[in-house]
Fold Sulfotransferase.
Amino acid sequence: MLPNLIILGAMKSGTTSLHEYLSYHPEIFMSRRKELNFFVEHQEWRRGVDWYASHFGGSEGATVRGESSPNYTRHPLFPGVPERMHALLPEAKLIYCVRDPIKRFVSHYLHSYSLGAEDRSLEEVAALTDTPYLLCSLYSFQLERFLEFYPPTQIKVVVLEELQRRPQETLRSVFAFLGVDPSYEDARFAVPSRTMPPVAVRRRGPLKRWLVRRNKRGVYWIERNLPWLFGPPIGLPALSAELRQRLAEAFAEDTDRLRRWTGYDLASWGTSADAASDGRDAEARCARQFAG
């Protein structure tokens, strides 16, 4: 069987949390493996439809069968995803998770930095217009690719901040969108997912660098299940007022388009105390955390 629900992303915006929460609903089957990346041409597309369908074995009694792959909204790095998806799953419902784009930008940067995939400073990458950190935070830019193929009635945007503040109410809206019992409640909905706090950045010790070179997926598993192995997590670094303002301006027009399309009040994005605080240098903080 094939899925009829795809969580598109965005990366570092609560997709793992939502995937987990949806799996608790008795009418929903979520793939056991997250990030199937089937519609990314140079990743899993070559494996074929039978491989993709194999991840939904045992879902025959479910109303909804879903998967989540944030790489689906990383255009133009991974082009052609909406076309391939619509050709195979024209009736699927799509969910797009978003959050404050500045916080997502920084979280994405720290994720790459912690894996040893990024050596530039936060200031350097913020000055560029073609990095995945910026492009993945341009939510309307990413979403509009899917709107070329799917009607708005098949797409729902979920705001991470709302999922964190009002999980049951937000999930009730998601369940209604998916056509399953919206009144279903689970005590686990009130408990923040283990992946929901800000970014959990670990020390880049020799062990982690060795693992990243050989098996990046193994590193993700360790971070999720054995977090003590790489050291304590840190939160998002505060940004200088100047850098925060520069990023706010970069995202303003795209965020306004998203606000108009969804009707959501997104006024709090980019204006939180954490994002606007002065006096701390994000690059220096990263360097201290990852030293040794």
